[in-house]
Amino acid sequence: MRLKCSTLNDMTNEKLPKWDLESIYPSVTSPSFEDDINSIYKKAEELKSKSADKNSSILSILSLYDELADIVENVGSYVYTSFSVNTTDRDVLAAMGKAEKAQTAASDASTVMVHYLSQRTDEFSSPELEPYALFLKEVKTEAEHMMSLEEEALANEMLQVSASAWSRLQESVTASIHDGDKTLTQLRGLAMDSDRSVRKDAYEREVKILADNKTAIAAALNGVKGTALLLEKRRGWKDPLDRSCNTARISRKALSALIEALEESLPIFRDYLKTKAKLLGLEKLEWYDMFAPVGDASMSFTFEEAKALIIDAYSSFSPEVGAFIKNALASHWVDPEAHEGKIGGAYDIFFPKKKESRVMMNWEGTYDSVSTLAHELGHAYHDSVVKNYPASQRSYPMTLAETASIFGETVIFQEVLKKADKDQQLSLIEAYVQGACQVCVDILSRFYFERSAFEARKNGEVAADDFSAMMLKAQEDTYGDGLGTKHQYMWAVKGHYYNEGFSFYNYPYAFGQLFALGLFASKDSVPDFPKHYKEVLSMTGRFEAKEVAAAAGCDIEDKEFWKKGISVISGYIEKMKEWL
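Predicted structure:
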């Protein structure tokens, strides 16, 4: 059987949809948006007042916090979605400033609440507070790592003109820079072109414009990492990784088990890179060859074809999930078109007042684009599973956030593979392993880089060229002899490095990949698995990662568990050799 794919003409002529944000707010200048901004200030003051009243019940305080958190998230999600597709819109930039000021007020109120609740920990075991057990446990930990109320208020306010501003600088610069007729995002998209000369030219142009802008982007990275180091030291965290693990709801033991498993897997992935080089007829793979198509290089998809494939695949797993995906696509939740002023990458974001998600991506028509769309819609399904929980019980960590997305990718991969002929199967298997290589090897290189960047930043400002040297060292330690040319400016294009709120944003992707593979592998042995899967997802905002994993029959503090997921990937690498 041959998988039906589009022609180049189909791709060129296709009109891509735009997402519907007007059902969230008509615009950033609309009365309803302004009303919610004002509501944040009002509820923040109410929360402060309740937290100053010794007669307030803890339950009433938590309920008010949940109301406030929902509005803050709704407003924040809206301004970010608006900004991400048009980074130069003045109204949006002004609204973002308003939202951040309101969010600062909410953060101040939350700090006051945490301080107050930390004095009533003896009441946390009350039966009525049982649903809030994890949240209250984290309140206690946060209180132990808190500066004075005055210092915390100043820190919250300063973040809007420090780390947040630096993060926006990186996004704005990388969204707007271009070389001739191509933006950075468009150049990066050419890494998937079947013509090696096109890939090489795009890579060289990408490196050139990043080199031209490296000073500004390095300033942004210095600002974000400097802020994180300063605040974490003042709050008594051992190091940024300590805080990251706490935020991710995992132990350092679990992280060590994951990292050790990834390190031991490096020879497997280097073998894959060498196998890919042979399949492409190359002596060695260069950086610009990593995303080159293998097998049926002409295999491409229109957005409509991708929608049909994804709906069918999710439906084959679970009619309930398939119906959700179909509705999300029909309701214009996705914005796929790449254009100047739009940030690179892809994301899913949730709007609690509407109880809906939105997905941003940059459609390229490749199988990778299909997989990315399936990935982000997996996130959206996860959002839907927890949407009716209050904010304090709905928010899940990055480690568990990737479960549904990677699971979704795997569902699509397995379904599409069934419909493909042999040459297409090679292309699909290679694309799948390519993604796994990014999640395991590249993620490990990012982990190494960020660890080095923090160490260097402790001693003062770090020069752009020094960041590049660290990046090359991290890539050499991971990709090794599997790659020739490396990419010294990957630190400049990965927005995850520029998030003060969650340092080491990288390892949760590897966690999610291998955890989801373990979960997927068990689907045929668990009765009514779709129901079990949904129950696991529903736990993610209310339990620590170890408890969620245990419910799925997994021990995340055991290195052997992670190696089981890697063995699934290894099997596909061996299968690729059938085409040599």
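Summary: The radius of gyration is 23 Å.
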